[in-house]
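Tokens for Aminotransferase class I/classII large domain-containing protein. Go.
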Amino acid sequence: MAHGGGGGSQHRGDDGVEADVAAPRWRFSRPSSQGGPLASAGLTSIRAVLNRVNSSVDAAGGPRPVLPLGSGDPTASACYTLSANDIYLTSGCVQAIEVMISVLAQPGSNILLPKPGFPMYESRTTFSNLEVRHFDLIPERGWEVDLEGVQAIADENTVAIVVINPSNPCGSVYSYDHLAKIAETARKLGLLIIADEVYEHLAFGNNPFIPIGVFGKTVPVITLGSISKRWLVPGWRLGWIATCDPNGILKEAKVNQSIENYINISTDPATFVQGAIPQIIANTKEDYFNKILDQLRNSADLCYDKIKDIKGITCPHKPEGSMFVMVKLDLSYLDDFHDDMDFCCRLAKEESVIVLPEYLSRDLPYELSANDIYLTSGCVQAIEVMISVLAQPGSNILLPKPGFPMYESRTTFSNLEVRHFDLIPERGWEVDLEGVQAIADENTVAIVVINPSNPCGSVYSYDHLAKIAETARKLGLLIIADETVPVITLGSISKRWLVPGWRLGWIATCDPNGILKEAKVNQSIENYINISTDPATFVQGAIPQIIANTKEDYFNKILDQLRNSADLCYDKIKDIKGITCPHKPEGSMFVMVKLDLSYLDDFHDDMDFCCRLAKEESVIVLPGIALGLKNWVRITFAIDIPSLADALERIKSFCQRHGKLETSE
């Protein structure tokens, strides 16, 4: 689907110069945004459902606080946004690249990448089956884009061109005139510009940095950035996607909606980093940045001057920005080197110069090694990794109903067929194992088991877990435990330590018989981790001390608080006519409650109930439809006792007000 029409017009560029232009035929409109897997995944995600319920709160409803009993998931909402309309926060620029490549990837499409360029683009496009076409950067012209080459390789299936400025790896900074030519070329070809401007504040040469977004009236631009380079905090993992689209072309093509859909099924940056950003931006003195630029300028000068004295390598262009420089090897002079890889490996070996966990073994009959554990940016990314690794054409996966909706969103996006098995409320939400055997077939790759259960609050017995394991063994299924038979366990520090915004999770392979290794599942996990964002490095660094030094008393207090909240919640619900709780919660932070719509008057379904409860009582609960169970709701009891009691009293008043009048015979 294309946007833009024929004919010509006078176009005034952002520099005020008029040029005769033809209306471009934009080639990046995404069919998936109007009904494909990304749209389905994003719009049915837990965030999208909670956003709908939250929007029902009556802003003029009085002084009572909004009581959020619908969250509890660290992924439910980001705590801070720079701009609701144009800016999307990501876990570093690597995730921003992932989002944009995933949004643009469609069968038959291609994207233009610079050569040389940042390899993460190549890795992500390869994974997404988006064809890569390379255009050259010309070293003799300060690594400018070969625009004639761009026009030669672009065709009607080309969706975007990536421009990295200041350049990683070249160290160049483009002039205003060259950026204008890039923008005009992209306009003529109908291409979106993805502007990687991570090093925007690290320009220290003759060319000042110019954001290519200044040409947004000429061509739509999506800018990728992060705080890591300007503030020199590379492990903080906070980036962004900014849409520079004054003409509304991206909005019309629904690219914005596709970005939002993908963000809805992805991990967020650490919330305390998000919360710190306003203070960091407001209070960092300009002198700090000037010192950084002076240091980089001095280092670049030294590097360039020293390289000139080294026979066998040459630097065609003095670096003016970023932190890098490209150097050419003269293999006619350097003896017996096959290529650049050989040179770098031998340099590392001869000169030591590089140019380019016990905690999880607890309660297991064997010890996990470092090779069994993969760190992720929270458990949401762990889910993303495993679903992406397992997704193959024609395969299916078994998910619990009710269950955590992020699994559903990710499988939908990955075109992995979902088959649901029931959890039986009358048996403490145990797995319906007969149902599992009935729906599994030769194309079923895994079963997801969430224990303790989100959303049900149940904890499975040893005997029931043994039956699940034996059923999986008979069916030849991998168990994904959102916690012989090969088992992949997903976990995070967020729940046990009650730090939901820290964004550190893990994937642990429990595979003493080597089945996963033989099937190369471990290698696939490692490959995916290699093209994904990492957890914040300072959180990683803190983990050994956190694990070693947290007293057991801390966890006991948390369990006591949760036990008391669960007891209060269960007892209060028993006194509310119109809702029932079939099983007292024994774990996690949630309880599933069934609506009696034969008593509650004039409600269409659970979504209607939740939206009207939010509007009338400012209490947020999660509709069961988001969890696969219609006409149920999930209540979070992990809040302070007075607020929980207040919220349940409001729910009681709401149900009484909307209950059908009982007539005496």
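Residues 1-20, 30-34, 73-82, 357-361 have pLDDT under 50 and may be disordered.
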